[in-house]
């Protein structure tokens, strides 16, 4: 097995406060925002720094994270930030971009205030959207489209057990 280690440096940080959400890009990386303003959504890769302990990074199985899911499930079958490399991925709509200030305004992101952002990529339907997907029966009732998430009771789907 490959045992190389990698050094990853953040390109920005999440700002999350009350009803306001944004991603601030560090000054050296602001030129990378050129052309992003034409996209309606972005993929944000972020480091779940609040769960980046050695103990949590060694977790490979968790107990029933989903109310209708199996009693145990492998970490790779979850979207949990608790994983060997706590890299998270969020797809978010873009409300606006201030390239000079390095600010991307978003309506929401499931990352905490101060979360390091590792990378940003444009959402491209030709490469991200899949017409025929397969999911386990316990999650088949989840919304099929991003826009349908807003009215869905996600809190009822998770057990939030330790």
UniProtKB/TrEMBL annotation:
The keyword Cell wall biogenesis/degradation does not apply. PROSITE patterns: TSAA_2 (PS51668). One of its GO terms (molecular function) is methyltransferase activity. GO terms for biological process: methylation. Residues 8-132 form the TsaA-like domain. The keyword S-adenosyl-L-methionine applies. Keywords: Methyltransferase, S-adenosyl-L-methionine, Transferase. Coiled coil: none annotated. It holds the Pfam family TrmO_N. Belongs to the tRNA methyltransferase O family. PANTHER family: TRNA (ADENINE(37)-N6)-METHYLTRANSFERASE. This is Methyltransferase. It comes from Methanoculleus taiwanensis. The lineage of its organism: Archaea, Methanobacteriati, Methanobacteriota, Stenosarchaea group, Methanomicrobia.
């Amino acid at each position: 097995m490959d045992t190389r280690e990698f050094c990853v440096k953040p390109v920005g940080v999440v700002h999350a406060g009350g009803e306001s959400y944004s991603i601030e890009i560090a000054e050296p990386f602001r030129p990378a925002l050129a052309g992003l303003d034409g996209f309606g959504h972005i993929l944000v890769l972020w480091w779940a720094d609040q769960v980046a302990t050695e103990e949590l990074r060694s977790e490979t199985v968790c107990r029933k994270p989903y109310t209708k899911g199996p009693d145990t499930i492998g970490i790779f079958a979850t979207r949990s930030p608790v994983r060997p490399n706590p890299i998270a991925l969020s797809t978010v709509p873009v409300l606006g971009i201030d390239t000079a200030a390095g600010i991307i305004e978003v309506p929401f992101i499931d990352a905490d205030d101060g979360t390091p952002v590792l990378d940003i990529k444009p959402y491209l339907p030709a490469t991200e959207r899949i017409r025929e997907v397969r999911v386990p029966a316990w999650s088949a009732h989840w919304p099929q489209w991003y826009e349908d998430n807003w009215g869905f009771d996600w809190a009822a789907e998770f057990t939030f057990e330790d």
